[in-house]
Design a protein that fits this description.
214 residues; alpha/beta
């Protein structure tokens, strides 16, 4: 039986004050994890499309949702309500989310042992195509280590675009490493040549000392 692909989604609470990036396989898994995150009852909570309030109540409909769809999870008995700043998250950015005082988080279940990336770094990645040039080695490694699907969710980009940015970071880090190694090698060669020159240099008027055979 073919395994169902895990896909990235954005999941918010009923008042839109928290949004969590999750990589999910099913509606049941969404309810279980989002319910626990937001303090809801997983077996009875309800799921809606955040942008228009369409309720998702079966696995078949859930399977047709696009990657990065933003969903809202509410307690049973509550209803979806349009927000005053209701355009979907995909039309904004990490920076726009912060301006709306909306907390964008990432479920550590999907991130493994990698560290998260700060909102400041995510904003720089989204706004500067050459971000990797100005990043420190540690920042580059953080991007490289981050789970690709979580990274795609954070950037609101496709998985392919997220991987491309991670590859750019890896190439930049490799370039820096090669430059450091080449510089170190040149220093060693230069030092060896200086030492050799000092050994071969004979002061004016000095004679080589003759050795007497035993």
């Amino acid at each position: 039986m073919e395994e169902i692909r895990r896909r990235p989604f954005k999941v918010c609470n009923s008042d839109r004050t928290r949004t969590i990036g999750m990589v999910l396989q099913s509606l049941e898994e969404l309810k279980d994890r989002a319910g626990n995150k937001f303090g809801l009852t997983p077996t009875t909570c309800r799921v809606f499309l955040e942008k228009d309030g369409t309720e998702i109540d079966n696995e078949e409909y859930f399977s047709f949702l696009d990657d990065q769809t933003k969903l809202m999870v509410v307690n049973d008995g509550e209803e979806w309500m349009a927000g005053s700043q209701s355009p979907s998250f995909s039309q904004g950015s990490i920076a726009a989310s912060l301006e709306r005082n909306e907390s964008m988080e990432f479920d550590r279940t999907d991130a493994g042992e990698t560290d998260s990336i700060s909102p400041d770094l995510l904003t720089r990645i989204k706004t500067d195509p050459a971000f990797f040039i100005s990043f420190s080695d540690d920042n580059l490694q953080d991007v490289i280590n981050f789970d690709p699907e979580q990274f795609a969710t954070a950037l609101d980009k496709s998985l392919a675009e997220a991987k491309h940015k991670q590859e750019a970071c890896q190439q930049e880090l490799d370039r820096r490493t090669q430059f450091k190694e080449a510089t170190q090698l040149l220093k060693l060669l230069d030092r060896a040549q200086q030492n050799q020159g000092a050994e071969n240099e004979i002061p004016v008027g000095a004679k080589r000392q003759r050795t007497t055979p035993e």
